[in-house]
Amino acid sequence: MHNPFLGKDVISILDFDRKALEILFEYTDRARRYLNTKLRVLEGKVVALAFFEPSTRTRLSFEVAAKRLGADVIGFTGEEAISVAKGENLADTIRMLNSYANLIVLRHRFEGAAKFAAEIADVPVVNAGDGKQHHPTQAMIDLYTVRTLFETIDGLTYAVVGDLRYGRAATSFIYGLTLFKPRKIYLISPPLLRARPEVLETLRMKGIPFEERSGIEDVISEIDVLYVTRIQKERFPDPMEYEKVKGSYRITVDLLRNAKPELKILHPLPRVDEIDFRVDETKHAAYFIQASYGVPVRMALLTLILGGEL
Ligand code: NCD
After folding, report:
1. Is 3.40.50.1370 the CATH number for 13-134+294-305?
2. Distance, CA 22 to ligand 1 centroid (Å)?
3. From 263's CA, which of 12, 66, 115, 307 has a CA 20 to 30 Å away?
4. pLDDT digit string (tens) for 289-307?
5. Closest approach atom of ligand 1 to CA 57
6. Which run of H or E residues covers position 74?
7. CB of 132 closer than 6 A to ligand 1?
8. Looking at domain 136-291, which CATH architecture does it have?
């Protein structure tokens, strides 16, 4: 098999094509058989987790994935914890990690940080979120979740709701969908938080039917996959702007009365108040299943990049 991930950086989901993702999903199916096993697939390798921004799921699931595969893990979370507090720059930190590890997973608040790191490092760099721009491994998990729930990613109607301007998970999910054939994507946000021009341009270029809207109510009955996101408070340049849009959307049991029985709700988490807790008990809630796929998808990805076998 040709391995399209071997030795590669993962900066954007658009670095890969549908065929590559299908290989990743097959490896993920296999990884799910080994969730309670310690494998030796990556024995002797070191994975560095460089998280300059807060993280719960992404960091922990990368760590569990690497350890399940038998790799050693080093890393840090938060700038306070490391020498950035002493004035060290990103380039020097990356050079150092490059000499300690076989792969670097990087999260940073600056757009383009992962690409910059990849230019410096000889070892593969995996982008675990660069500012508002990309979060490709989250998109891999999201697409895998849809594929598992619906047995296909094509032909479905999607709604991506919330902060499409500053949300990197939402952005990467939309980019990921352009590698498939969705029936239609509704982009639902307050006017202030519309998807960025380059995202809309990609949709147009790839001929994906989409429509921008402000409300969910009118389209809820058409949707198969409702992808809900948090308003990214920390990325607003002006706190007053956040005040205008906070709490714009709330998915409630009442709203879902008009939904298709098979509608599934995804959310990259953490949620603030976008999804009422009562929705968790409905058959529509798929966000915890989605979060649980974080480990096997990342196991599959690390294995493929580092040339292991599952
Ligand atoms: C997302 C992120 O960090 O971009 N979280 C995640 O990785 N699951 C989404 C968010 O913070 O809203």
Report:
1. yes
2. 24
3. 12
4. 999 999 999 999 999 999 9
5. 8
6. strand 72-77
7. no
8. 3-Layer(aba) Sandwich (3.40)
